[in-house]
Specification:
single chain; 197 residues; Aminopeptidase; ten-stranded mixed sheet; binds coenzyme A
């Protein structure tokens, strides 16, 4: 009986509505709901959410929002940037701010947000690849939405002190196909030419 109940809960499909918003055109309501979503998750440890520099990370210029009625229950954002990979310039959608409200997790909302973001990377922003860094614990989540882990040394400016450069060769980096397939990702070290997302 207990086992059956658990399966029923896990298969709940939330009827969320996804919107794609340019950062500069976000409504006051959307901004207020984003602040509520991020503050609930991170305020105690990282302070107030700042739309133009969230927790010191690079800001998004496109946001995909998941709405349950008027309540925002999920977000992912990306920023266009030309980075350098193995000495070659690559136009990526630097992806971050992936967050689903605790009460909406495990229902496929995160995955739907990533698929919608990928479509926007292609249709709206016309970028070659999605790019992100994450904790090892969530690699499987991104892989479930078609992202692929790459191995490379990555340098970027420090989250709290942009005058410093951070070199990372252990934290997970993942890419997703957009205008180009992942097989065309160049070999070599990655220079983000700015802060991480
Ligand atoms: C990680 C997070 C965004 C996942 O969102 P979600 O809506 O619960 O995920 P989904 O329900 O869409 O899951 C999609 C798939 O990923 C899997 N998955 C979800 N969370 C996972 C995790 N932490 N590790 C590995 N796989 C995970 C699911 O089992 C599901 O697999 P399936 O497609 O084979 O069924 C959400 O848990 C969250 O907001 N966590 C806190 C913030 C965070 O860690 N963000 C990532 C920062 S890099």
């Amino acid at each position: 009986m207990l086992h059956r109940a658990k399966i029923a809960v896990m298969s709940v499909n939330l009827n969320v509505n996804l919107t794609v918003n340019q950062h500069s055109l976000l409504s006051g309501i959307a901004l207020a709901e984003m602040r509520r979503l991020f503050d609930a998750e991170y305020r105690a440890d990282f302070g107030d959410w700042d739309p133009d520099g969230p927790y010191g990370y690079a800001p998004a210029d496109w946001h995909v929002l998941a709405w349950l009625g008027r309540r925002l229950v999920g977000h992912v954002g990306f920023q266009r940037r030309v980075i350098e990979v193995g000495g070659v310039e690559v136009a990526v959608a630097g992806t971050g701010g992936m967050l689903v409200a605790p009460e909406a997790r495990g229902c496929g909302v995160g995955k739907r947000l990533l698929f919608r973001a990928q479509r926007s990377m292609i249709k709206d922003a016309k970028l070659d690849f999605g790019y992100l860094g994450c904790r090892p614990a969530v690699v499987g989540f991104y892989e479930s939405a078609g992202w692929v882990r790459i191995r490379a040394q990555e340098s970027h400016t420090d989250r709290l002190d942009p005058a410093l450069t951070v070199v990372n060769d252990s934290s997970p980096i993942l890419i997703c196909p957009a205008l180009r397939p992942v097989t065309e990702w160049p070999n070599g070290d990655v220079d983000l030419r700015g802060g991480a997302w």
